[in-house]
Amino acid sequence: SAVLSSYFLNEKLNIHGKLGCVLSILGSTVMVIHAPEEEEVTSLDEMERKLQDPVFVTFALLLTVVALVLIIVVAPKRGQTNILIYILICSFIGAFSVASVKGLGIAIKQMLERKPAYRHPLVYILVIILVLSISTQINYLNKALDVFNTSLVTPIYYVCFTTTVVTFSIILFKEWSSMELGDITGTLSGFCSIIIGIFLLHAFKNTDITWSQLMSTVAKEPSLP
Known about the structure:
Mean pLDDT: 78
Number of strands: 0
Family: Belongs to the NIPA family.
Membrane topology: Multi-pass membrane protein
Helix content: over 70%
Transmembrane segments: 15-35, 55-75, 81-101, 122-140, 152-173, 185-204
Oligomer: single chain
Order of helices and strands: HHHHHHHHHH
Main location: membrane
Organism: Hylia prasina (green hylia)
Distance between the termini: 46 Å
């Protein structure tokens, strides 16, 4: 988005922004190379069994309870002063869209194969969860953007949401069970590179520093004897 804004909206990227874009692209590439192979789920019955896994149910209940506490108790008191409150609500509730979209994708695929997937009650449960999660996510994200600076909300939200979704997906689909240590290290390194890149891109967004200014500053420094 930063590159497109620079090209179409004539917004200038300083040296921090350019480095941030490069780091984000490199981090994304590393994550794709080392990404775990997703366990194939081909039917709603398989999806239902995964959703009933005790570990996943415990994690989902924990996320729900924490999100409700933030919404009911914490947000009315500290939502206007603490940037993490609204963002954590978006991240925790938004993570449920992962399972919903995956399940609905399977249902659509089965219906295209002329299978009566619409008769499965899981389809309607997933639709309700998807609507609730997306609407809640949009609502609290807009609240965060209304109160806090976009340059702060965007990177923090990206990190929190991505971390929650990745954890959610790992527990639900057990994607990392077959990964080697090198792939795990590469995935985490790529994710950290993206975080650093986004931080550079947004934290120094209003800093007016160019490459020529940086080089001239270096040239003016006195040489050591």
